[in-house]
Amino acid sequence: MAITGIKGMNDILPAEIAVWQYLEASARRVFGCYGFNEIRVPVVEKTELFKRSIGETTDIVEKEMYTFADRNDHSLTLRPEGTAPVMRSLIQHKLFNRDPLTKLYYMGPMFRYERPQKGRYRQFHQIGAEVVGADDPRIDAQVLVMLCQYFAEVGITDVSLQLNSLGCKECRPAYREALISYLASRTDALCEDCQRRFQTNPLRVIDCKAVGCNSATADAPAMIDHLCGHCDNHFHAVRRTLDDLEVDYEINPRMVRGLDYYTKTTFEMVTNNLGAQNAVAAGGRYDGLIQELGGPALPGIGFAMGVERLALLKGEDSQLVEKPALFIAALGEGAQRVAFILMTRLQRRGVRVEMDYAGRSLKAQIKRADKLGAAHTLIIGETELAAGAGVLRDMTSGDQEPLALSAAEDLLVQRLVCSRIALDGALTTRL
RNA sequence: GUGAGUGUAGCUCAGUUGGCAGAGCCCCGGAUUGUGGUUCCGGUUGUCGUGGGUUCGAGCCCCAUCACUCACCCCA
After folding, report:
1. Measured CA to C1', what is the nucleotide nearest A5?
2. Domains in chain A, number
């Protein structure tokens, strides 16, 4: 019996890696423009970190974490999300002392023990960004603009940005009480889950998708109508800035977050094209988190995107697959020897080159060149070898021209590097 | 944790009332000397998820088990 992988933890095979690399490279490029720098933190942290940040009573902490004891009986957890580890690192290394405004991004695997389904896996990947040190509403807007630009640049268009405010520790408790008393008057209409949780986590009830709950809470009080003066001003300033920047968004007063640390501005990028899952990216402000984790009272805001979900939306794009610039088709032992040396020299100089090693017919070799998507094929047979000139075939047009073997290396480097720049140009304009 | 569905070639899937294990794609070779994409011809590929049971005979019927998928839930 062969050993298989673990449920919900997937291999990303060469055929699908092009999209992943594209999504990651695009994030680096776009986030870089906004002044973000990458940070890499471990995949494992002390369990306490997630309990303190995400919240003891959240589903993630209660039943979804991969928690285990190491050989010294310390409780460790595979990170279920990225913000808490990044904040831990920021506090530990006092990054806020080097720069009052810290902008970080990260990408990597996260782990949650859930039943896998479409767009939801036990090991999944996030690309996230965090800004620490500013509570200016323009920062909220900037983060949202950056998020929207990312989606535009990677060509994922069928999404919408949902915006809400969850208030702060000044105004949320009062709202919570108002919501509980509203819900208490109509518990009969709520689904089983909501009847249980309306006391512990009433905000979750207005986010419930059960039809009963949905209609029962239709005119429930909304957080955005109960914001304190400060939060209300902040929310309006964020909206005004987004309007100035012509960013499309919808206010969704029922949107709630699954992690306890969120305050004020919260948002989700949602889609209808992911089956039961509709969030591709989500985030918000977390003004109390850093202090809660033992750091200074610094405000923060950030988001995370699900890479598997982005990849599902993006789909397979053959244009993203790396193709050889050249295939060398050699016939006969002497030609194969020359071809292998030439191929290696070109590879050393940065050209993607392929050849055949099985001594196949010219027809079979050209067929393979076509299949690999090579832009050109250099044919070297006995006659070419004797004449000292190969035949360079343009695989798109079918045009062929002689190419002196003595000068082939330099000519091909020059030519194929040029075509590579043209290809990059095409990719850039396509965005 | 709950529910439903599906397991047959590398991939997508047929398989009749229980009677020799199939197709398409992929891969390999060929269609007058050494030229790809279209077409035509030929070929390779199997623990029918696994273990039991019924039967002269099981891919098909029965029991168990495992895996996967989707949904609930939750969320990126």
Report:
1. B67
2. 2
